[in-house]
Amino acid sequence: MIKKEMIAMLLAGGQGSRLGVLTEKVAKPAVSFGGKYRIIDFPLSNCINSGIDTVGVLTQYQPLLLNTHIGIGIPWDLDKNEGGVTVLPPYEKSTNSEWYTGTANAIYQNMAYMEQYNPDYVLILSGDHIYKMDYEVMLDFHKANKADVTIATMSVPLEEASRFGIVVTDETNQITQFEEKPEKPSSNLASMGIYIFSWAVLKEALLAKKDQNNCDFGMHVLPYCHEKRQRLFAYEYNGYWKDVGTLGSYWEANMELIDIIPEFNLYEEFWKIYTKGDIIPPQYISKEAVIGKSLIGEGSEIHGEVQNSVIGPNVYIGPGAVVKDSVIMRNTVIGSNTVVDKSILAENVIVGNDVVLGSGKEAENMSKPKVYAFGLVTIGEHSVIPDGVKIGKNTAISGVTTAKDYVNGELPSGGVIAKDGESA
Amino acid sequence: MRAIGLILAGGSNNKMRELSNKRAIAAMPVAGSYRSIDFALSNMSNSHIQKVAVLTQYNARSLNEHLSSSKWWDFGRKQGGLFVFTPMVTADNSWWYRGTADAMYQNLNFLKNSHEPYVVIASGDGIYKLDYNKVLEYHIAKRADVTVVCTDIDGDDINRFGVLRMNEESRIEEFEEKPMVTQSHTISTGIYVLRRRQLVEMLEKCAQEDRHDFVKDILIRYKNLKRIYGYKIKDYWSNISTVESYYKTNMDFLRPDVREYFFRQRPEIKTKIDDLPPAKYNPGADVKNSLIASGCIINGEVDNSVLFKNVFVGNNCVIKNSIILNDVYLGDNTHIENCIVESRDTIRANSYHYGEDGIKIVVEKNERYVI
After folding, report:
1. CB nearest B283 (choices: A75, A287, A293)
2. Do residues B216 and B120 make contact, with C-beta atoms less than 8 angstroms apart?
3. I need a surface site. Which of A101, A113, A253, A367 has the fewest CB within 10 A?
4. Per-residue pLDDT tens for B265-289?
5. What pLDDT is attached to residue A424?
6. C-alpha distances in angstroms, A316 versus A139, A197, A313, A321, A350?
7. Could you report the predicted ipTM of this complex, rounded to two decimals?
């Protein structure tokens, strides 16, 4: 019988709607990060670096890019004869077919997958955080405490604590109280959404809660375990961990990589982050290019100026263009003499010549003021921006736009152009 | 599948100077991200040849490391695969490979046990793209016994190649190996196509006569007896087996047409993936007309140069017209001009290296202190 001590279940089905047009056609875990990576590369690399070679990836929202990226797991050495990576979409059943309605419900629907590996422990991960973590150390902690459930936690500023699941612990790190997104948090120890369950405990809890609507770990399963007086422990993590759930935090996390000695260091030999390395050639920096503090990916051609930016692989930046404080994802083309200021450009975008991105004064976004804030310009994948237009701050564009879409050649701050279904 | 592939990657020569102390020529890093043998291997794979043997002998550690998995070139298949053959002591042979023909002869069983009717032979030191199927079609159409892929070159470099002359039907009439003086500008690229049984027969005959070289002892001797044809290629082709040509080939990639041809046009050249982070530019970086591979961290000036993977350039460095191989650490205030810096070198701060007449090869084995 196959036996794996610990397997991982990676929740990658979420949309991440606060990333706006970036996740319009792409699941959040598949969004590019730090030039060549995608967000899901971080938990997947953590798995293989921690010695976990069996990973189920639960997908639901827009899985095409995610599936293509994961493939059979070659980049992470997860192409195994026994175990390896398995993509787990929701599936039809003879009775009661449903989508994944919540985090715990998704895991419940894949009971058979977990069962076949006969695990002692199951690690629950989410595919939308940037961090490096040795799950084996967390497992040792779990075993040492004879815990039923171990929750990875970290201290967050108290004023932000109400965004998280908050735990209160005693001096032995055992959890005495559990609050999901409390209005008045009683501690600042936040759950990172990373759990180790002893298999029997997880199975029992999922079966007990199987009829719960939108069954969620934080809302239902953990409180259930807590009520049953099972041993819940908080594993405190002190390294770099970033939730890139909003455009602002996504942009900020990218910018942090450019620091001379970044807090989150990609250049360490011993904990490599793996990704699908489909672009091989070196980058070319031309005679007229000016490169300031930046990260630039493989195969890019830079003829213009790049300052304080993260440039993905296979990007072209034309002569005379100026890119500042921006994130540009793979295969995107920036025309000549175009100015890109504090913008996020998704993959395969074409920006014409003499365009200005991020001009003028800030104004609140007219359709989603909470999403398109931070003064950013956000351009969705496969968008086209015609020559000579001006685009203000807190704006979003998706789809193939033409000069006709810009009144007086301009999209003022706070504006949105969404041309869904027209991108060819 | 119609053909199997053989890549002759055993060679070394003193024209590579210190660079060949460390590796076979086929393992030389090229164009920032690749190694020389990637071009032949990718051409094989892109031509749908599924079974390829690499014959290697000289200083093969670096090459073996590069070939440790066949998946990068898509050879990890049930049908076919990538084979690396080094010389072996057996009951009836205790020789190293004594020449190209001998290298193939010592692996005759590989040839005999294959079922594909044709063999494509290539060398590991050519930088080019070629669909070998086109050569094979030509070979069949000409009813040739051997087809030699050739190209025209100019310059005094010609005397390091096999020089040939074809008649109007492209049959090779003259073939001289490394002549001192020659009228022709057409050279053999070291790529051959022939029937597998024909090759086996020729190799066996050659071995009986105690001859060992494929060009001297087979091609040149048989040229009037067998139908040997030339297939001329006009696209980019370069051989890197001298320091000067190695330097020039790398610098060629700073040309937009060469980059377009190798980096953008399909099919692409594949290589082992190293999972390095993107190149990082810190304040003080000033890069012009250069190729920069992934994993580099740049704090200084780089002009008209090729930086391979994982190069660290310290503050106030000046790098001009140079090639910096993989994993080199350049301390602060270093000046490197007209040089090739050997891989894994650690150059101390304030060093000065200048290739006065020609290319200087910098090999320093300083201790590296990393924080």
Report:
1. A293
2. no
3. A367
4. 999 999 999 899 999 999 999 999 9
5. 36
6. 45, 47, 9, 10, 10
7. 0.92
Nearest by CB to residue A287, choosing from B269, B289, B295, is B289
The encoded tokens of residue B276 equal 């390095």
Task: Summarize pLDDT for B165-194 with one digit per residue, the tens.
Answer: 999 999 999 999 888 888 899 999 999 999
Taking alpha carbons only, the member of B310, B305, B313, B312 closest to residue B359 is B305
* Angstrom distance (rounded) from CA B300 to CA B285: 4
Q: How confident is the model at residue B370 (pLDDT cuts 50, 70, 90)?
A: low
B184-to-B155, B175, B245 alpha-carbon distances in Å: 11, 10, 20
When CB atoms are compared, the residue of B271, B273, B283 closest to A292 is B283
> Residue A365, Cα to own-chain centre: how many angstroms?
24
- Among residues A251, A253, A226, A81, the alpha carbon closest in space to that of A168 is found at A226
Task: Tell me the three-class secondary structure of A53-76, residue by residue.
Answer: CEEEEECCCCCHHHHHHHCCCHHH
Residue A71 corresponds to which amino acid? G
Mean pLDDT confidence for A260-265: 88
State the pLDDT confidence band at A180, using cuts at 50, 70 and 90: confident
- How close is the nearest chain A Cα to the Cα of B120, in Å? 26
Distance from CA of B124 to the nearest CA of A (A): 19
Instruction: Indicate the SS3 state at residue A235.
Output: strand
Q: Report the pLDDT averaged over residues A126-141.
A: 95
**DSSP output for B119-146:** EEEEETTEEE---HHHHHHHHHHTT-SE
Q: Give the C-alpha separation, A193 to A218, whole Å.
A: 8
pLDDT above 50 for B86: yes
**DSSP helix/strand/coil, B353:** strand
Task: Answer whether residue A198 shows pLDDT above 80.
Answer: yes
Predicted TM-score (pTM) of the model is 0.93
B 75-114: CB under 8 A from A: none
Alpha-helical segments (H) within B82-194: 100-105, 108-113, 132-141
Which tens digit of pLDDT belongs to each residue from A222-255?
999 999 999 999 999 999 999 898 999 999 999 9
A156: how many CB neighbours lie within 10 A of its CB?
A: 20
**Average pLDDT along chain A:** 94
| Tally of CB atoms within 10 A around B288 | 17
Beta carbons of A56 and A114 less than 8 angstroms apart: yes
Query: Quick check: A122 and A55 in contact, CB under 8 A?
Result: no
Given CB atoms, is A267 within the 8 Å cutoff of chain B?
Answer: yes
Q: How far apart are CA A375 and CA A413, in angstroms?
A: 9
Closest alpha carbon to A248 in A20, A72, A95, A29: A20
In chain A, % of residues over pLDDT 90: 86
Asked which of A95-109, A374-388, B80-94 is least confident by mean pLDDT, the reply is B80-94
Using the Cβ of A294 and the Cβ atoms of chain B, whether some distance falls under 8 Å is answered with yes
Contact A334, A319 (CB under 8 A): no
Strand A316-317 and strand A301-302: pairing?
Answer: parallel
Task: Kindly list the strands in the beta sheet with A309-311, ordered across the sheet, starting from the edge strand earlier in the chain.
Answer: A416-418, A395-398, A377-379, A343-345, A327-328, A309-311, A294-296, B279-281, B297-298, B312-313, B329-330, B346-347
pLDDT digits (tens, 9 = 90+) for A410-423: 999 999 999 865 44
